[in-house]
Design a protein that fits this description.
Layout lengths: L3 H22 L5 H24 L4 E8 L2 E6 L2 H24 L6 H20 L3 H20 L6 H30 L9 E2 L3 H18 L7 H6 L4 H27 E2 L2 H23 L4 H21 L3 H32 L15 H14 L6 H20 L4 H34 L14 H19 L5 H6 L14 H23 L28 H5 L3 H9 L5 H45 L4 H21 L1
Parallel strand pairs: 3-4
Antiparallel strand pairs: 1-2
Length: about 650
């Protein structure tokens, strides 16, 4: 029996120590040893995380820095279920990456960074005060930078730097917000009474901490780093961090902020819900026009954050529970989608949707897993994404009901948020119809090389995650909501009624009837021939790939202008920051550097004039020097007499 308090330390520091050990002592040529040790370590820590999950709340406190700052850890219900899935995703990514990253020159560094990221993520979730949380939080940012740099493209440095500065700025806001929280409560520890937001200081503290959480999870306007790194970072990194861990950590902090630390009112609730709604619509509209698999998935990773922020922003138990459940569901299906994308890229060497097609017969398990995850992210019943979105909708409806007698205008804004969420779900389904057709169901590209086999370790994770999408949808109330969500948030007052089991039976009956009709129709023999295009043979480059399904939206006014501005990075906050920095540097160059230089030139010329004049006065005659000496002595006597 492991001592309760020590298990928390082991969950944090075991992967960190193993990662440092590999970095310092194991040569990079021992790839098999590095991979196996890393996988075994993640398995052991996953078991530790599971042990923490099934126990009652566990605490560890050690005097540390003085001034009331302790190294304090605690396993709350919210942190325990997040901890469990951080362990699961770390194990699956470690297993998946073994073959996927095998030919990467930075194979060793990749696993070192992955292990340390695992450890510090556990540290964030178990932290019981802001100081400890911020330390682990910042180390996680550095690991994100390093993992992006493991990409093989030359531009990985640029995208990694953008990530570092974007998220780093938000983390600076988080630190300032934590300092203000200490000012309000006189303590760094969590578990203090809720702060009622009735002062400007409390409002500023909440907003600053929320900025750190939103940037970590990738909500608008701090989202642009995710599409940027998608083209440079390995797909497994995208599955591990922006799709899974960063969502778990960022939304965990936001939920803790709203549910445990602050008592937010209607105004801040409205702000969060509007941010969520805007994130949903803007990101899914950008996803619809993408031609690159990785960028399309990255924009959907941003869009789904909007649902989480929308649900948590309601501030009511149903909405918060829905946001947390959607956080978990998103981590599952988006991880699955990125790993399916990784299998496609590994098989073909391509992520351009225009060059893909007809891969369902070569990657059947990947196709089925991707199809299930696509239905899940689109909110199609009976998959898990539908249940969490349904709970979020209920939370928003409850918010609308509560606000009707307070402010009709606010109620109208809440209604727009609900419409945006439902419309965004429909657009998500449309977007994934395009993706599934372009990759798996479209015409096969004869020029595409697909001789590379996908290892079983790369098939296992997507299949398992696809099964979880089904289980967490059909048995939502029996498994995830009962064991993960209800211990965190009481949701006894659900507005509507949803019975996944009965709905699943009806859906299966409908599918069976559809299959029977299809088979009956297939029994009738018809002549099949190539598409007639005036007697010409259709070349491969003229295949209908499906990537332009929604090109008409791209060309419509005012969307065409908005899309052009977005592609020119007009809305990119990082570019705004660069613009401000360049302006300040030019101002400093013109007003300071040039001014100082001109002042120096003026003083130099003035000194030269004075020197030349005094030189002319001193002609080398002894009598002249004597007169100057007497004149100086006379001035000195006058000064002394004055005093």
């Amino acid at each position: 029996m492991i001592e309760d308090s020590i298990i928390l330390l082991r969950a944090i520091f075991l992967p960190i120590i193993v990662g440092i050990f590999i970095k310092l002592l194991i040569p990079k040529k021992f790839k098999m040893f590095i991979g196996i040790v890393s996988i075994i370590t993640t398995l052991i820590v996953f078991i530790l995380n599971f042990n923490i999950f099934i126990r009652n709340d566990v605490s560890y406190t050690q005097q540390w820095l003085g001034f009331g700052i302790n190294f304090s850890l605690h396993s709350y219900p919210l942190s325990k279920f997040c901890l469990l899935f951080v362990g699961l995703f770390s194990l699956l990514i470690a297993l998946y990456s073994y073959k996927f990253i095998w030919n990467n020159e930075r194979f060793k560094d990749y696993y070192v960074l992955l292990l340390i990221t695992f450890g510090v993520s556990n540290g964030v979730l178990l932290s019981n005060n802001f100081i400890v949380l911020i330390i682990f939080w910042e180390i996680a940012l550095l690991m994100l930078y390093g993992l992006v740099r493991t990409g093989t493209t030359k531009e990985s440095y640029i995208s990694a730097t953008k990530t570092l500065f974007t998220v780093g700025f938000a983390d600076f806001c988080l630190v300032l917000g934590a300092v203000l929280y200490w000012k309000l409560t006189n303590s760094w520890e969590f578990g203090q009474p809720k702060i009622i937001i009735s002062s400007k200081l409390a409002v500023i503290s909440f907003i600053l901490i929320a900025v750190g959480a939103l940037a970590k999870s990738g909500a608008i306007p701090f989202h642009t780093w995710i599409p940027e790194i998608s083209k440079d970072a390995p797909v497994s990194v995208m599955a591990y961090l922006p799709a899974s861990l960063d969502k778990l950590l960022g939304i965990y902090l936001l939920a803790k902020l709203v549910h445990e630390l602050f008592d937010i009112g209607f105004s801040l609730s409205l702000v969060l819900m509007v941010i969520g709604a805007i994130t949903i619509i803007v990101a899914v509209m950008m996803a619809m026009i993408q031609h690159d698999l990785r960028k399309l998935l990255s924009y959907h990773a941003i869009s789904q954050v909007g649902y989480m922020v929308l649900g948590i922003g309601t501030g009511n138990p149903v909405g918060i529970a829905g946001g947390l459940f959607h956080m978990l569901n998103h981590a599952i299906y988006k991880n699955c989608l990125f790993l399916c994308g990784g299998n496609v890229i590994h098989k073909t060497g391509e992520s351009d949707l225009d060059k893909l097609g007809g891969l369902s017969k070569y990657l059947p398990l990947t196709f089925i897993s991707c199809l299930i995850a696509s239905f899940s992210i689109s909110g199609v019943p009976p998959f898990n994404g539908f249940v969490s979105k349904w709970m979020i909708y209920q939370g928003v409806i409850q918010k609308i009901t509560d606000s009707l007698n307070i402010n009709p205008i606010t109620s109208f804004v809440f209604i727009l948020c609900l419409i945006s969420a439902m419309f965004g779900s429909a657009l998500t389904l449309a977007s994934f119809m395009k993706l599934i057709h372009a990759i798996f169901l479209g015409a096969e590209n004869s020029d595409l090389k697909n001789e590379i086999k996908v290892n079983w370790s790369m098939k296992f994770a997507p299949v398992l995650l696809g099964l979880l999408c089904i289980i967490f949808g059909i048995f939502a109330f029996q498994v995830p909501i009962k064991y993960f969500i209800i211990p965190t948030v009481d949701i006894s007052n659900l507005i509507g009624f949803w019975e996944p089991g009965f709905a699943t039976i009806l859906i299966i009956i409908g599918l069976v009837l559809g299959l029977i009709i299809y088979l009956l129709g297939s029994s009738i023999k018809v002549r099949v021939d190539n598409t007639y295009i005036g007697g010409e043979v259709l070349p491969a480059e003229l295949r209908v790939t499906g990537t332009d399904f929604y090109q008409t939206i791209r060309d419509m006014k005012p969307f065409s202008s908005l899309y052009n501005w977005a592609e020119q990075k007009i809305f990119d906050t990082y570019e705004w920051g660069l613009g401000i920095a360049n302006s300040l540097s030019k101002f400093g160059y013109i007003c300071l550097d040039r001014l100082v230089e001109k002042l120096y030139i003026f003083i130099n010329k003035l000194g030269s004039v004075i020197t030349n004049y005094t030189t002319e006065l001193q002609g080398g005659l002894l009598s002249v020097y004597l007169y100057w000496s007497l004149f100086g002595l006379f001035l000195l006597i006058l000064i002394l007499c004055k005093f």
